[in-house]
TrEMBL record:
Name listed for the protein in its UniProt record: Fumarylpyruvate hydrolase
InterPro entries in the cross-refs: Fumarylacetoacetase-like_C, Fumarylacetoacetase_C_sf
Pfam families hit by this protein: FAA_hydrolase (PF01557)
SUPFAM superfamilies referenced in this protein's UniProt entry, alphabetically: FAH
Residue ranges of every copy of the Fumarylacetoacetase-like C-terminal domain listed in the record: 28-227
GO molecular function: acetylpyruvate hydrolase activity; metal ion binding
Alphabetic keyword roster: Hydrolase, Metal-binding, Pyruvate
Amino acid sequence: MPETVIAPPPPTLLPVAGTEARFPVRRVYCIGRNYAAHAVEMGHDPDREPPFFFQKNPDDLDPSGRFPYPPRSSDVHHEAEIAVMLKSGGTDIAVADALDHVFGYALALDMTRRDLQGVAKKAGRPWEIGKAFARSAPVGPIHPVSEVGHPSHGAIALRVNGKLRQEGNLDQMIWKVPEMISYLSEYFTLAAGDVILSGTPAGVGPVVRGDVLDLAVEGLGEMTVTVT
């Protein structure tokens, strides 16, 4: 192995439920406005248009259960999601074959500096400043397909300090998991270690320091995250 001029950065390794094993993260793709009600609340037409994606960084995924409120923002929002972890990939994957590439699923939050994202949108600029900041994606343990199958329906709910903020059902996704995988593979070579955040239902809203976020998805358990 060749010598490196600096120490290689540590890999992002996520826990797998019930084991000591870890899942190494390669890339993180996030789909936008994938629930009709959320598209409406963000001011968009919920009709089924081609999906669009943005990216987060691998080390934005954080299993610690703590979300440090980020700098340069006064309007940080929660977005409750599930994460899809791939064990293999390729290009031009058929929808019928897409689920064969999934290792497992996890609960996740796509935390968003909404004020900075709004400025970027108005200027026609990329969203990374609002989406891809450090530790912007709290994530729970990964549940392997061998244990939970492929959840295509089931309640998803987020409570903040015990009060219900977001609720929906996985079957309300505009673009289902196999379709997301297939579509992405037309533009990127997907591979083991890739993660897809699958969108959020309606009810996104702000958090402040000290808030406790409880995310639950039927079949995938619960996750608690504290804003620090």
